[in-house]
Write a structure and sequence with these properties.
- The structure is a single chain.
- The chain has one helix spanning 2-19; strands at residues 29-36, 40-51, 55-65, 72-80, 99-105, 112-120, 129-138, 144-146, 150-153.
- The protein is mainly beta.
- It has one domain: Immunoglobulins (Immunoglobulin-like).
- The longest helix has 18 residues, at 2-19.
């Protein structure tokens, strides 16, 4: 009688442990801090393995609150190919410049969220690293929230 209960407990732990793998890796989550205007938030990104045809895929989400109500914001990212120096030096042109990932519109209370997926040629082979920074900017450019600089490793 004890063996089936133990087996069910082990299977439950295995399923719960496997479900947590889909979350962003440590270091790939950041607070969003207002550089101009108001608001705060959070952004996370989770790169997945390269698929058939050597495609780099990353999914993520940005959420803001205490921002301007009923306002449309653009979620963007920029990369720096000199990783692990703690500073995101943004090159002006793609693929390193600001790339729009999604938009979000805040509620009357000033909160909003958006999900994004980025599919592109890989910036390098498995193990290659680059730094990334995110910003959430109002369409009129007056409200800007920025993330910390984070280092991504290509899977």
């Amino acid at each position: 009688m004890k063996r089936p209960v133990l087996l069910i407990a082990l299977l439950t732990l295995t399923v719960v442990g496997a479900a947590s793998v889909a979350q962003a890796e440590p270091g790939l989550q950041s607070k969003l801090t207002a550089i101009s205007g108001q608001g705060t938030g959070h952004v996370e990104v989770s790169p997945t393995a390269q698929g058939q045809g050597a495609v780099f895929v990353a999914e993520g989400a940005a959420a803001i609150h205490d921002a301007l109500p009923n306002t449309t914001y653009i979620v963007q990212r920029a990369i720096d190919f000199t990783p692990n120096d703690g500073v995101c030096t943004i090159a002006p042109a793609p693929p390193a410049g600001w790339i729009t990932l999604t938009t979000l519109t805040t509620s009357e209370g000033g909160a909003g969220a958006g999900h994004f997926e980025r599919v592109s040629p890989p910036p390098g082979p498995s193990g290659f690293q680059f730094d990334i920074v995110f910003r959430v900017i109002s369409t009129d450019g007056t409200q800007v929230l920025m993330s910390d600089c984070m280092t991504v490793t290509v899977k």
